[in-house]
Amino acid sequence: MKETDHKAVVVSDERWRHFVLAPLVGVYLFSMLLTLSHLGEPFPFMGKLYSGDASESLTFADSIISLYLIAGILKRQRLTLWLLIAYNFINSFNGIANLFLLPVQQIVTTSGAIVPDHHYRLNAFSVFVLFLMLNVFLYLNRRYFDNKSIYLW
Asked: Transmembrane segments in this chain: where (predicted)?
């Protein structure tokens, strides 16, 4: 009787694992699609605005990294957990660097959007906080990344 109760708890934990990691797949899939939607537009990276082939290369590289991270989440790979945390820190630092090093009007003009400066700054800060919260979520749920293989296959 006790073994049956224990199995029920294990099955419940197994179902919960998929529900915790499913939103992560959605977040990074949305991020990848959002990045790909800006293909051909100038790409701000670490305080510099890239355009042309450099912009397309950075956009493509960011999309491939996101695709790898999505596959790693689906495989529950331990290495992916630490890569996700590093990726989020790099994106956070990138957003803050762009905010302080690039003139807001230059970013707004090249993106083609008509947005007041304070809205852009609030948006950049909100994304920074979102990435930090995502890192806390990842760290607190690190036990669900139980595949210790460094390979995705």
From this structure: 20-37, 57-74, 81-102, 122-140
